Amino acid sequence: MVERTYTSDEMMSVAAARALTGGQRVFVGIGLPSTAANLARRTHAEDLVLIYESGTLGSKPTRLPASIGDGILADTADAVISVPEVFNYWLQPGRIDVGFLGAAQLDKFGNINTTVIGADYADPKVRLPGAGGAPEIAANCHEVYVVVRQSKRSFVEQVDFITSFGHGRGKGEREKLGLPGAGPTLVITDLGVMRPDPETAELVLTQIHEGVTVEQVKDATGWDLKVAPELETTPPPTEAELTALRELKAAK
Question: Which of 85, 47, 43 is CA-nearest to residue 247?
């Protein structure tokens, strides 16, 4: 058996980066999405346009930003505009190709919770950072990619609070609400990749990372996860991808 030279987090970041292609306009969330988007720009998609909520267009940071207010985003941007302009001119009219988001909880229809853990909003078990611009991103981008570590705590049958609308309770609910974007079309985890079923919009496992079993993925999912009949295996990271990722994370 060949010994792995990379971590599950590195595999997740590489798989998420590979999902992006050159020339796309990507609305980037801080954390795992930002790592993947910046890795894509450093490897195979140099002309990727990274847009952050603080109003920076075409940012090219030399290190991972600590927050949307990190000065390196403005210093390396093609342009800096106001936050209302980001939402009113770029996001709401559908000028963003991909919204790249994280999640604290995600359910089988791609709904995202970043607000509270627990049934009582006023007195939750955990109060999370909140929405920020994520609901608008989830509503208006052409499509949404979600990158999140997988466990039964994060992948639940039904989220405790819908912060960012995915597919509601099934196919057609976005259309009923008049949401223009396609919603979550791709979920990348440290175990594999999921896509919504075209008939039901329920997330289906379509790809597992090398060395991961279907049983492992099912054990880390809070619902009876369906598996695609033609399940693919993610190619492992290349040396070039790992080098670029590690340099990016080490940069100060």
Answer: 43
Please name every residue paired with 57 in a beta bridge, in sequence order, or none if there are none.
Answer: 51, 79
What tens digit of pLDDT does each residue of 50-92 get?
999 999 999 999 999 999 999 999 999 999 999 999 999 999 9
Q: Is 25 exposed, middle or buried (0-12, 13-18, 19+ CB in 10 A)?
A: middle
Helix/strand/coil for 234: strand
- In the DSSP assignment, the letter for residue 238 is P
* Predicted TM-score of the model (pTM): 0.96
The pLDDT tens digits of the residues spanning 160-193 come to 999 999 999 999 999 999 999 999 999 999 999 9
Catalytic residues, by residue number, are 53
